[in-house]
Every structure is written in C-alpha cells, then in structure tokens.
Amino acid sequence: MLASSERAHEAARLMESAKEWTRENPDAWAYMIGLAEREAAAQRKFSMQWLIEQVRKIDYVDVRGRKSGVNHNIAAALARLLERERPNVSNWLTRRHASVDELAM
C-alpha cells in the first residue's frame, strides 16, 4: 500500500498526464465533451469509461499526427477535468472515489 505522500504524488502525476492528454488530443477531447453534454442534456447517465470507448471507435490523431490512444489509468483524472470544464455534466457522470479526488485543484 502506498504511503500518503506517495499517493498524493501518484495522483498529481495522473492529473498532469490527463491534462497533457487533453492538450495533445484536442479533437478527441472535444468529441468526449460533446458526447458528455449530449448525454447530460438527454438526462442519461454515462461514465468516462464509456466516453473513452467511444473515442476508440474513431480514428482520431493527436497534435503530432499519431493515432490517439487513451490510457485507462487516467480515466478518473479525465473525469475530474471534464467536471471542472463542464459542471453541467457532473450529475450525469458516474464515478467512484479516486486518488485524484484528494488533490487540491
């Protein structure tokens, strides 16, 4: 089991990885946001895992022209970024407690 400081360090690393992913994959991130907003507007629950799977079905490329891929390790951090960026989807996004919840953002 990780010590408290190690958990905080790992949470910060995951959050930074998620932020970096959104910067490097702006088209895929915009697609995820759009899907989240549509699901929320329709009052349907959804998960970040579902959004990730939807992105994987489309051949997005990152800012360097490489195929976009989403590591499931950053899913919780992406969910928190989504909630921060689009608070209106928060009630419809299903999530569990994650280490990134303990970060002072």
What is the SS-derived class?
Answer: mainly alpha
Main β-sheet: number of strands, strand sense, barrel status? Answer: 2 strands, parallel
H/E series, N to C?
HHEHHE
Per the principal axes of the C-alpha atoms, what is the gross shape? globular
Radius of gyration, whole Å: 14 Å
Strand content: under 5%
Number of beta strands: 2
The overall pLDDT, averaged over residues, is 88
Which regions have little confidence, pLDDT < 50, spanning 5+ residues? none
Q: Roughly what percent helix?
A: 40-55%
Strand order of the largest sheet: 1-2
How many alpha or pi helices?
4
Distance between the termini: 24 Å
What does this structure look like?
Strands 1-2 form a two-stranded parallel sheet. With 105 residues, the chain is mainly alpha-helical. The protein is globular and about 40 Å long. The chain starts with a helix and ends in an 11-residue tail after the last strand. The protein has helices at residues 4-24, 26-41, 48-56, 75-85, and strands at 46-47, 93-94. It is built from four helices and two strands; from the N terminus they run ααβααβ.
